[in-house]
């Protein structure tokens, strides 16, 4: 009986002791031996893996990158001023990952998923690694659906398809970001989600892009991932991979996604800085030997998936900056060879006010022509060739050469085509509006006007076609070819609109 009483007396004490017992775990720790601008060297951590997250004091994280026998080179993902030699470093046993999901839409975040828009925490339920293998060849489907940019010169002459990688390159201040921004704005009423990835840009420039997206109602279907020029090079390096992982989440759900990398020149420079700090051997222009690989493994993740894998697509518009129009520089040539085409923006055209300043002769789309709406092919099928011939003839005509009548007509027609291809920023057009303008100029309806009168007459043609031929506009948007009666009706309405304008 006394034994039972003692058991009852000490039972709560035994239960409390059991609750206080903790399970012992083994954790690897290392020590910081050297700190540089954006990197750190760590001794210890024998089991650390490539690209694994390691934790420094005060919540700072880094990514293990150089796995040498005696020390580890770590890329810091935050301010390096808080790290000192002798500080303790711990493994996390997970690679760098980011949050994904619908909660990111309409938000501005950094490469780690932390909000930058003062709208509170991003409430996602899933995280995925930033480095993921590209879809296998047999998992990919042909690019068959157009991605309408809303720009006449692009949609008609250098079309882009969903799942394509179209490079935008040119000197600074030639309108590269403007083309990408207009493309995003043109998707605001469609079914394409957008991701804008800013790498090393000025904070004021990024703020302007975000303000434009908000002002034109496109921010709600867009994710903005930012690593400004003031951020550490480690954050700038991982930002495009993090943005791609966020976009892949929607692609794997069967959605069509557009991602803009602005720009990969600064990304390459950030990686060069990190590589030199980590004492990796430099190559051409001091870039490391794997500079091609960091971009190829990024852009290869953009594709169009087969129906059994969801049928989604990820279209990439990487931007790269050239120096004094040097297309044969190291980084531009690397990206040209990776991408499926390029839009080259000429500073000469920009200075002349021919906006968007797309050089048709140096631009190409290796995929999009197969995805172009049939109406474009029937109306502007030969426009690219004839426009290139016009530019060449116009150059020769400046020498005062005597021109025959046919050559003179070609030059006059080309000048009016050039006026039609002009388009201000934020003024994207539907496919039907573009077809109306292109059809009128190809058929020579603007030949009776001076080049200065073409812009106003073109607006009148677009307005008349949209008001009087809504059925034809609907069929054009649905992908039906422009044939027979539709062709004649479009021509008749355009001619009447121009005649009323002339009178």
Structure notes:
The chain is of the alpha/beta class. The protein folds into three domains: 29-95, Beta Barrel (Elongation Factor Tu (Ef-tu), domain 3); 99-372, 3-Layer(aba) Sandwich (Rossmann fold); 377-502, Lysin, CATH 1.20.150. It is built from 16 helices and 16 strands. The chain has helices at residues 2-20, 152-157, 176-185, 203-215, 233-251, 264-277, 291-299, 330-338, 347-351, 374-380, 383-397, 405-421, 431-442, 451-468, 470-477, 484-502, and strands spanning 29-35, 39-44, 52-55, 61-67, 72-76, 88-95, 97-100, 108-109, 126-129, 167-170, 192-201, 222-228, 256-262, 313-321, 341-345, 364-365. Strands 8-12-11-13-14-10-15-16 form an eight-stranded mixed sheet, sandwiched between helices. A six-stranded antiparallel barrel has the order 1-2-5-4-3-6. A hairpin with a 5-residue loop joins strand 3 (52-55) and strand 4. The protein is elongated. The mean pLDDT is 91.
């Amino acid at each position: 009986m006394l034994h039972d009483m003692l058991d009852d007396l000490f039972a709560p004490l035994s239960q409390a002791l059991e609750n206080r017992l903790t399970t012992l775990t083994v954790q690897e720790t290392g020590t910081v031996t050297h700190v540089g601008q954006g990197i750190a060297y760590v001794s210890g951590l024998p089991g650390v893996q490539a690209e694994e997250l390691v934790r420094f004091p005060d919540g700072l994280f880094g990514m293990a990158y150089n796995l040498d026998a005696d020390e580890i080179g770590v890329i810091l993902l935050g301010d390096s001023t808080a790290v000192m030699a002798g500080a303790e470093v711990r493994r996390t046993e997970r690679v760098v990952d980011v949050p994904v999901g619908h909660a990111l839409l309409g938000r501005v975040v950094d490469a780690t998923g932390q909000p930058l828009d003062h709208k509170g925490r991003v409430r996602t339920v899933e995280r995925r690694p930033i480095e993921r293998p590209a879809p296998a060849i047999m998992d990919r489907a042909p690019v068959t659906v157009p991605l309408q940019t809303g720009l006449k010169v692009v949609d008609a002459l250098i079309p882009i398809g969903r799942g394509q990688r179209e490079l935008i390159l040119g000197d600074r201040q030639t309108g590269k970001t403007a083309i990408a921004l207009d493309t995003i704005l043109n998707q605001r009423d469609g079914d394409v989600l957008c991701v804008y990835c800013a790498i090393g840009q000025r904070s004021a420039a990024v703020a302007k892009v975000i303000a434009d997206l908000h002002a034109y109602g496109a921010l709600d279907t867009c994710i903005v991932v930012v690593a400004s020029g003031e951020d550490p090079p480690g954050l700038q390096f991982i930002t495009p991979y993090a943005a791609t992982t966020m976009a892949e989440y929607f692609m794997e759900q069967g959605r069509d996604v557009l991602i803009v990398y602005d720009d990969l020149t600064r990304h390459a420079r950030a990686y060069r800085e990190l590589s030199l700090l980590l004492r990796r051997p430099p190559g051409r222009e001091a870039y490391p030997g794997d500079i091609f690989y960091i971009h190829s493994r990024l852009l290869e993740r953009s594709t169009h998936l087969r129906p059994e894998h969801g049928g989604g697509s990820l279209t990439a518009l990487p931007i790269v900056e050239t120096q004094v129009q040097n297309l044969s520089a190291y980084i531009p040539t690397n990206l040209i060879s990776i991408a499926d085409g390029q839009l080259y923006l000429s500073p000469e055209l920009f200075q002349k006010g021919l906006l968007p300043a797309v050089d048709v002769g140096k631009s190409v789309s290796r995929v999009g022509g197969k995805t172009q709406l049939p109406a474009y092919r029937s109306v502007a099928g030969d426009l690219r060739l004839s426009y290139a011939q016009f530019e060449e003839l116009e150059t020769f005509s400046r020498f005062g050469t005597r021109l025959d009548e046919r050559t003179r007509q070609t030059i006059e027609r080309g000048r009016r085509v050039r006026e039609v291809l002009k388009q201000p920023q934020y003024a994207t057009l539907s496919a039907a509006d573009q077809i109306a303008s292109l059809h009128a100029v190809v058929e020579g309806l603007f030949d009776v006007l001076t080049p200065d009168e073409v812009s106003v007459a073109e607006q009148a043609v677009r307005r008349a076609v949209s008001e009087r031929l809504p059925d034809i506009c609907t069929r054009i948007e649905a992908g039906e070819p422009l044939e027979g009666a539709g062709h004649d009706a479009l021509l008749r309405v355009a001619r009447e609109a121009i005649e009323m304008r002339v009178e």
